[in-house]
Every structure is written in structure tokens, then in C-alpha cells.
Write a structure and sequence with these properties.
Shape: elongated
Strand content: under 5%
Number of helices: 3
Low-confidence stretches: none
Mean pLDDT: 83
Largest sheet: 2 strands, antiparallel
Radius of gyration: 16 Å
Length: 91
């Protein structure tokens, strides 16, 4: 199941990484696939990886207490998660 729809250039990057790993007889490593959006984001706000791997950076961000899914209360089960912005407010 894909995390998000990718442009055709990124699909080529993903397929090339998969082919390289297969040629070397190993699984893909965490962070080995770098879509253009991930590579070009200076704030490192986008993470791409295997959410089924408990050690991956995507899984670790999912464990952050700020992590949430949009429309989760409607049982929509989206694949994209977000981290809430921390605001210093006084009530």
C-alpha cells in the first residue's frame, strides 16, 4: 500500500532503488529511497519509508505524542500522518 501518490520521476527513483537492492540480494534500507520532495525539503518535514518496520524513521515519528491523522475520528484510515505544531500559549 502506497503512502502517497508520487510523480513519475519519483516512481522511477523508487523502482531504481528496489532494483539495486534486489541485485545485491538484500532488502531496502531505511532512507535508501529519497523522493524529490524529501530530498529538497530543508526542514526535513517529509519522511518516506516503511511504516511496517518498527525501526524506520516513519515508524518512530508515528510514535511521537504529537502524531495524528486527519479525519481519524471518522475511521478514514489515511496513510499520511502529521505532527502537531507546538504552540506556547498562555490561557
Amino acid at each position: 500500500r502506497g503512502v502517497m501518490e508520487k510523480c513519475s520521476f519519483c516512481v522511477q527513483r523508487i523502482q531504481a532503488s528496489k532494483a539495486t537492492a534486489k541485485r545485491h540480494g538484500r532488502k531496502l534500507r531505511d532512507g535508501e529511497i529519497q523522493p524529490a520532495c524529501v530530498q529538497s525539503c530543508p526542514a526535513e518535514a517529509i519522511t518516506f519509508g516503511d511504516s511496517a518496520d518498527g525501526k524506520s524513521s516513519v515508524s518512530q515519528r508515528g510514535l511521537d505524542p504529537r502524531h495524528y491523522h486527519v479525519l481519524a475520528e471518522l475511521n478514514a484510515k489515511p496513510s499520511v500522518g502529521y505532527l502537531a505544531k507546538v504552540r506556547n500559549t498562555t490561557d
